[in-house]
Amino acid sequence: MEQILKLFFEHKEAIFIIALSVFLGIEVISHVPSVLHTPLMSGANAISGVIIIGGIILVGHSDLSTFSLELVLGILALVFGTLNVVGGFVVTDRMLEMFKKKKK
Q1: Domain map (residue ranges) of the chain
Q2: Angle at Cα 46 formed by Cα 101 and Cα 67, nearest 5°?
Q3: Is the dihedral of CA 16, 17, 23, 27 positive or negative?
Q4: Cβ neighbours of residue 78 under 8 Å, at least 6 residues apart?
């Protein structure tokens, strides 16, 4: 526990910036009009694809015999990136279904 607190105190500026960026991102995304949602979702899927590739590289270069920080971060990047891509495709598909003509 002492090591975690030491890590927080050493990197308090970076943690502060990350926390502010989370709040700023939530505020910006909540005010996006629905017309721009699909193009933004496509951009988010592309960024998440890059995160997945980075996670694969990180897991591939980490030492699998020990429980290292690189391994944990790589697995988290893979899981969250994949969830974001799949969720983005599902939401985009449902939105595109709204624009199709309904069969009689």
Answers
A1: 1-31, 35-104
A2: 130
A3: positive
A4: 52, 55, 56, 59
% the chain with pLDDT above 70: 96
At which residue do the structure tokens 């910036």 appear? 17
pTM for the model = 0.59
pLDDT value at residue 23: 92
Residue 53 has pLDDT above 90, yes or no: yes
Digit-coded pLDDT (tens) for 21-30: 999 988 887 8
Residue 77 and residue 49 in contact, taking contact as beta carbons nearer than 8 Å? no
Query: How far apart are alpha carbons 40 and 37 in whole angstroms?
Result: 5
Residue-wise DSSP of 38-93: HHHHHHHHHHHHHHHHHHHHHHHHS-TTS--HHHHHHHHHHHHHHHHHHHHHHHHH
Sequence-ordered list of residues with C-beta below 8 angstroms from that of 15, at least 6 positions apart, any chain: 8
